[in-house]
Amino acid sequence: MSPLVKIRSERDRMSAVERRIADFILENAQLLRDYSSQQLANALGISQSSVVKFTQKLGFRGYPDLKYSVGEAIGRSEEGAAEPPAARAGDALGSMLWQLKTQAEEATRLINRPETMREWVEAIASAGKVFLIGLGEDDLHARVFALRLSLLGIVAIRHFDVGRMAAQVAMSAPGDVLVVFSEHGKHPALVKIARYFREQRGRVVTVTRHTSNPLRAMADIALAVAGHDDASYVQSLVYQSSVQQLLDTVFVHLCEGDEARHARLVANLERIQHMLEP
C-alpha cells in the first residue's frame, strides 16, 4: 500500500499532533526528501521524538524508512506522468486511470471501518423511509442509489431540488434516514436540511470527501471518500468511482442480508424486463 494512502486512511484516528504531521506530509510529499526529522519537527513546531513516534506508529522502522517509501511512491507516479502522450494513449492511458481508481477505492475501503459500513446497512434496512439528496454530479449517485433501494422494496425519496427536499423532510419520522451526497460537504442548504432532519429525530448519513467539513461533522454516520490527483479532470473521475464502489458494497450487503429483499429485487427486475419487452 502507498504510504500516502496509509496516512490518509489512518488520519481520523490520529491525535492532534499526529494529524499536523500527516497533513504536512500529504500536502508537501515532494518536499519530504529535503527534510530531516529535525527539520520537519522545526517546521511544525513540535519535538523530533513526535515525528519518530508518528512514523513508527504507521509501521515504519523510522523516519528515513518513511521518507524513502514516500519518495518511491512519488517516483512511480512521476514516471507514469512523464510518459509522452503517444505512450499514454489507448490501453496505457486506460491502465493508468484504472490503477488510480483502484488505489482510491482501496483507500476509501480502509478509511471506512467495517463497523461503520454495517451501521449504515442496518440503518437503511430498518428505516421507514430513506431520503436522498445530492446537488450537481452528486445527484447522479443519489438517483441511482434511490432506484436500487426501491427495487429492494425500501421506500426511497430522492430530490435534487433543495426546496422540495426541505418540504419532504417535514414528513420524516424517528428512525428515518437522510443520505446526503456532497463532495466537499460545505453547501449551506444541505447543512440546514441535515440539521432539521436530526431535529425530527432521523439519522443523517453523509458521503463526502475525506476532509473536515460541516456536513461530515454533524452526521450520525459519516462515510469518507478518497480520490486525489493533481489533474482536476482525473480527480473528479477517481472520486466518482470511489463513491460508486462504496454504494455498490452497501447494495450487495442489503441484498445478501435479507432473503425477502432479494426476492423482491428479482421480482421487480423481472417485472421491469417484461414491461420493456416489445
From TrEMBL:
<feature type="domain" description="SIS">
    <location>
        <begin position="120"/>
        <end position="260"/>
    </location>
</feature>
<dbReference type="InterPro" id="IPR000281">
    <property type="entry name" value="HTH_RpiR"/>
</dbReference>
<dbReference type="Pfam" id="PF01380">
    <property type="entry name" value="SIS"/>
</dbReference>
<dbReference type="InterPro" id="IPR047640">
    <property type="entry name" value="RpiR-like"/>
</dbReference>
<dbReference type="InterPro" id="IPR046348">
    <property type="entry name" value="SIS_dom_sf"/>
</dbReference>
<dbReference type="InterPro" id="IPR035472">
    <property type="entry name" value="RpiR-like_SIS"/>
</dbReference>
<dbReference type="InterPro" id="IPR001347">
    <property type="entry name" value="SIS_dom"/>
</dbReference>
<dbReference type="InterPro" id="IPR009057">
    <property type="entry name" value="Homeodomain-like_sf"/>
</dbReference>
<protein>
    <submittedName>
        <fullName>MurR/RpiR family transcriptional regulator</fullName>
    </submittedName>
</protein>
<keyword id="KW-0238">DNA-binding</keyword>
<feature type="domain" description="HTH rpiR-type">
    <location>
        <begin position="1"/>
        <end position="77"/>
    </location>
</feature>
<keyword id="KW-0804">Transcription</keyword>
<dbReference type="Pfam" id="PF01418">
    <property type="entry name" value="HTH_6"/>
</dbReference>
<dbReference type="InterPro" id="IPR036388">
    <property type="entry name" value="WH-like_DNA-bd_sf"/>
</dbReference>
<keyword id="KW-0805">Transcription regulation</keyword>
